[in-house]
Amino acid sequence: MKIYPIETGNFKLDGGAMFGVVPKSLWSRTNPADENNLCTWAMRCMLIEDGNRLILIDNGIGEKQSEKFFSHYYLHGSATLEQSIKQLGFGLDQITDVFLTHLHFDHCGGGIRWNADKTKFDATFKNATYWTNRKHWKWATEPNAREKASFLKENLLPMEELGQLKFVEDGFDAFEIFYANGHTDAQMIPVINYQDKRIAFMADLLPSAGHIPLAYVMGYDTRPLLTLEEKRVFLNRCADENIFMFLEHDASNEIITVEQTEKGVRFKETFKFNQLF
Asked: What is the pTM of this model?
């Protein structure tokens, strides 16, 4: 097995929304904001080469939305999903599995794209199975008013219409999955055995190293108190079992570890992926 980080570019979100009830004077120490109170966030994905399987975890925001839509998120950075995959020597058609932690647009938008003349949507990875779970699929395709703007039908329905959608309950076995329901219903956090270590792909359970304290919960989360408890359980596990945490949204930190302290679980070390593997 080999694992590769996949950079797909950065975007900006409001710092207050990203840290909920925590004052800016505290969260800005780790995540400084610009003059519009916006912080930079990565959309970092993971590619796993395992025998004859090439598994992509999440796929960024994509390129098919309107200019007006993208203007709200200030996309920047030179990396793209396709470019990052091809730089590793792989083609898009070689991807066998696309594992989606959840179906918010910044995690699954890159999986569907326009065809050449922009008359219909195609799968970016035409030979891949797209994996979610039944509970989250129902949640995303019958969205509540709070999350409706994050679940875009053009990101979701083509997966099913093209016959490439499957549910993990029907046989996904590439790695362990931790389910978290605070951010959105049935978000999936992969825990991967790699070499002599374990790596957790943190998705939106822990957007950045700055979110480690339990009260630092996103305003986007549908059930913030549940997120707090899920973070407590999982971060304690990561500290006790020395699990390395791969951060999808932290623009500065790719992988971090945590440790137990008198104040609870706290940040320990940060690494670039190529420092560890």
From this structure: 0.97
